[in-house]
Amino acid sequence: MRLYIPVLLGSRRIGRQSIGVARCLMGKLRACANIRTELLDLAGYNVPLMDQRLQEMPDPPADVRELGDKLQQADGIVMVVPEYKNGYPGVLKNALDYLDAGHFRYKPIAISTVSSGEFGGLNCLAQLRLVCLALGGVPIPASLPVSQVQATVDADGTVREPRLAKKVEPFLRELLWYVEAMVTQRHKTTWMRLTTGACLKASTPAGDATR
After folding, report:
1. Are the CB atoms for 70 and 6 separated by under 8 Å?
2. What per-residue confidence (pLDDT) applies to 1?
3. Which residues, 6+ apart, have CB-to-CB distance to 106 below 8 Å?
4. Residue 50: domain span
């Protein structure tokens, strides 16, 4: 079974340097025979300002529907997001706000934040993890902050900074561990539904019943 793990690039800014990081990670994923990947570049989607959720729209814009479908079909997601003004780009928040609260349910999400400064977008990382949780996703513990991107990663995805290059594969390996675990559990739950006619509820932790 091939896993579908797209790379979501959360910026459409002209001259953005985060595209090199996205191409680097996508290239690593493509090297794995059991992974299907593609770049979901917000610059290539026409996503109007959100005034209604995707599931509530009688006739959603084609690009919004396509982006939502691909994210929902994903087994896991890699997000590459530049930090702007100590946060993530508004164009990304606008796109994610179209989705319902469970759109990323049980999907592991690996986040690489990018900045031209020294801290690699850590403020953006903390905020974006909360957004992913609100969508039902599972942000993995590992992250890939890329600082001074203009000097460390070329537009074609070549990493020029040796310390950063050593972090890329462990970052993706952790994502794959979580994706495989989640996919296995989803299949197990589906099998239980088919064989028992109902899905067992998770047990309530001791002390939580009266909260």
Report:
1. yes
2. 77
3. 136, 138, 182, 185, 186
4. 3-196
Q: How confident is the model at residue 187 (pLDDT cuts 50, 70, 90)?
A: confident
- Interhelix angle 18-30/162-196, rounded to 10 degrees, is 60
**Domain assignment of residue 55, yes or no:** yes
DSSP state of 108: E
56 lies in a domain? yes
Q: Which residue has the tokens 């460390």?
A: 152
Residues 6+ positions from 197 with CB-CB distance below 8 Å:
none
Give the chain's domain count: 1
Residues 134 and 164: beta-carbon distance below 8 Å: no
Within-domain flag for 208: no
Does the residue 150 lie in any domain?
yes
CA distance 185 to 25: 26
Q: Look at residue 194 in the predicted model and tell me its pLDDT.
A: 54
The CATH number linked to 189 is 3.40.50.360
